[in-house]
Design goal:
Layout (H helix, E strand, L loop, with lengths): L2 H13 L3 H7 L5 H8 L6 H8 L10 H18 L18 H23 L9 H22 L18 H16 L8 H18 L14 H14 L6 H10 L10 H17 L3 H14 L5 H18 L5 H5 L2 H16 L2 H8 L2 H10 L2 H6 L1 H15 L5 E3 H10 L6 H14 L4 E4 L4 E4 L17
Antiparallel strand pairs: 1-3, 2-3
Family: Belongs to the CSN12 family.
Organism: Pseudozyma flocculosa
Protein name: Related to CSN12 - COP9 signalosome (CSN) subunit
Length: 468
C-alpha cells in the first residue's frame, strides 16, 4: 500500500467518524502498517510527507503530522528488527545505530503522533467515535516505551553459582537472598532505566484528563467513555514504575468527576479497574475491601483469560487466607503454579502445622515469588492464623475448657517442631489475644489462660485484626 493510499483511507475513515477503521490503520504491528512499510520508499521525514500529500483528498492537520510520525515509527521499528538472534548491545546497523537507539527513535516518533492526536482529541465535541484510535495509539506508545527501555537497559546476567551445598541457606539468609534478587530487578525502575515509560506515563495522564474533563452534555457521545480503559493503562504503568502511590491521585479525580456508573462501562474495563483497586486495598491492608474488589474481578474475568485469572488469584488467595477463607482444591487444580505455591501453606494453615508453614515460606523460590508480588508480608501475617489453628486444637483436645495452662500451648508448639521457651509461648498466646484471634486473658501468676465461655476462638473474618 502506497503512503498516498494510506492517507486517503485515513481521510475517508475520519470523515465517516470510523474509529475502528482508524485503529486498524494505525496499529503498529498490523498488516496495514506492514503493507505501507513495503512501499514507503525514501524514509526521510520530508519525503514521507511528500508521499502522503500525493493522496487524492486533502490530509488536514493534525492528521498529516499523525500519519507522518506513525510511518516514521513503523520504519524505525522495522530497523530494530534487523538485529536477529543473540547480539551484543553495542552492535550497530549500517547507519551506526544500535537496536536500543532504533527503538528509542521509534518511540519518539510515536510519541509525536500521540501528542498531536491528544491535542486534537481534546477539542472534539463528540469524541466517543475516536476512542478505538485513542486506545491503539496509547497501546502502541506503551509497548514501544517498554521495548526501548528494555533494550537500553538489558537485565544483568544471573549471579554465578556459589560453592554452598544445596539447602544450606537458613531461613533468614534465604529471605535476604530472595529480597535481594527482587531488589536487583527493581533497580531498573529508576528514572534513567525507565525514561521512555515515564514519558509514556505523562502522556497517559494527559489522555486521562482528555477523557474525564469532557464537558459534552450528550453523554452518549462523550469522551468520558474512555476513562476507565485509560485508567487501567495508567495503573499498569504506575505499578511497573513502582510508583503505586500515584494511583491515589487518579482515584481521587474519578471520585470527584461526573462519570456514568461503572456498571455501564464495558465488562473488561470494570474488571481491570476493580482488580487494581483491590490490589491497592490489599497493599493498604484493607482486606475486606480487597476481598470484595478482587472477588468481583475474578468472577467477571473472561473464562479463557487464564493468565488474568491467575494474576487476580495471586492477591485474592492471600487476602482470603488473612480473612480465614480457604480456596477449594478444585480451584487450585486449575492453576498449577498457584497450587504449587499455596497448597503447602494452606494445608499447614488448616492443621496448625506452624513448622511446615514456616519451612515452606522460607524456601528461596517461594519467598522470591511472594516478595515480587508484594504479598510476602500478608502471608507472614497469616502465620498468626496458623498459630490460632494449633491453639484451637489444644482447646478442643481439652474439651473446650475455659482454663488451660500455658504449658499445654507450649507443649503443642514443641509437638509441631516449634522450639521456644515457656515465656515466648506465653507471649505468642498474649499476641493472639491482643489481636482478637482468641478471647480471654492470661493469669500470669498462675500460668493459666482463661478463655471466654462463648466464642473462645472467633471465626476468622468475623473480627478486625488489631495491627501492631
Amino acid at each position: 500500500m502506497r503512503p498516498a493510499h494510506f492517507a486517503d483511507q485515513v481521510i475517508q475513515a475520519e470523515k465517516a467518524n470510523d474509529g475502528h477503521q482508524l485503529a486498524q490503520l494505525f496499529a503498529i504491528g498490523g498488516p496495514i502498517s506492514h503493507a505501507v512499510l513495503l512501499e514507503l520508499g525514501d524514509p526521510r521525514p520530508n519525503k514521507i510527507l511528500l508521499s502522503l500529500r500525493k493522496c487524492a483528498g486533502y490530509l488536514a492537520s493534525p492528521w498529516e503530522e499523525i500519519c507522518q510520525s506513525h510511518l516514521l515509527s513503523v520504519y524505525f521499528l522495522s530497523l530494530s528488527n534487523t538485529f536477529h538472534g543473540a547480539y551484543s548491545s553495542d552492535a550497530t546497523d549500517s547507519e551506526g545505530k544500535t537496536r536500543a537507539e532504533r527503538l528509542a527513535d521509534s518511540f519518539d516518533a510515536m510519541n509525536t503522533a500521540v501528542t498531536a492526536f491528544l491535542r486534537h482529541f481534546s477539542t472534539l465535541q463528540a469524541g466517543r467515535w475516536a476512542l478505538p484510535l485513542f486506545r491503539i495509539l496509547l497501546l502502541n506508545l506503551r509497548w514501544l516505551a517498554i521495548q526501548a527501555d528494555t533494550a537500553a537497559n538489558p537485565p544483568p546476567p544471573p549471579p554465578a553459582a556459589t560453592s554452598a551445598r544445596p539447602g544450606a541457606l537458613s531461613g533468614g539468609a534465604a529471605t535476604s537472598s530472595a529480597v535481594a534478587a527482587v531488589n536487583a530487578q527493581e533497580t531498573r525502575t529508576s528514572s534513567t532505566a525507565n525514561k521512555r515509560l515515564e514519558e509514556c506515563a505523562r502522556q497517559l495522564n494527559k489522555a486521562f484528563t482528555a477523557c474525564i474533563a469532557d464537558r459534552n452534555p450528550d453523554m452518549a457521545e462523550s469522551r468520558k467513555w474512555g476513562t476507565y480503559e485509560v485508567v487501567g493503562m495508567v495503573f499498569k504503568t504506575y505499578f511497573k514504575l513502582k510508583s503505586i502511590s500515584l494511583c491515589k491521585n487518579i482515584l481521587r479525580a474519578i471520585s470527584a468527576a461526573a462519570l456514568p456508573p461503572l456498571e455501564e462501562f464495558p465488562r473488561a474495563h470494570q474488571v481491570t479497574f476493580r482488580y487494581y483497586v483491590g490490589v491497592l486495598a490489599f497493599l493498604g491492608e484493607e482486606y475486606a475491601k480487597a476481598d470484595t474488589e478482587l472477588t468481583f474481578a475474578f468472577a467477571n474475568c473472561h473464562c479463557r483469560a487464564t493468565r488474568n485469572q491467575e494474576l487476580i488469584l495471586s492477591y485474592l488467595i492471600p487476602t482470603r487466607l488473612v480473612l480465614g477463607v480457604m480456596p477449594t482444591p478444585a480451584l487450585l487444580a486449575r492453576f498449577p503454579r498457584l497450587s504449587a505455591l499455596y497448597t503447602p501453606l494452606l494445608t499447614s494453615f488448616a492443621r496448625g502445622d506452624v513448622q511446615t508453614f514456616d519451612a515452606h515460606l522460607a524456601t528461596p523460590e517461594v519467598e522470591k515469588r511472594l516478595v515480587s508480588r508484594g504479598v510476602f508480608l500478608s502471608i507472614e501475617r497469616a502465620r498468626e492464623g496458623c498459630l490460632r489453628s494449633l491453639f484451637r486444637r489444644v482447646w478442643i483436645a481439652k474439651d473446650r475448657a475455659t482454663r488451660i495452662p500455658v504449658d499445654d500451648f507450649w507443649r503443642a508448639l514443641a509437638f509441631v517442631g516449634v522450639r521456644v521457651d515457656k515465656e515466648e509461648a506465653e507471649w505468642l498466646v498474649a499476641g493472639l489475644v491482643y489481636k482478637g484471634y482468641m478471647k480471654g486473658y492470661i493469669a500470669h501468676e498462675r500460668g493459666i489462660v482463661v478463655l471466654s465461655a462463648k466464642e473462645a476462638f472467633p471465626k476468622l473474618g468475623s473480627f478486625t485484626v488489631v495491627s501492631t
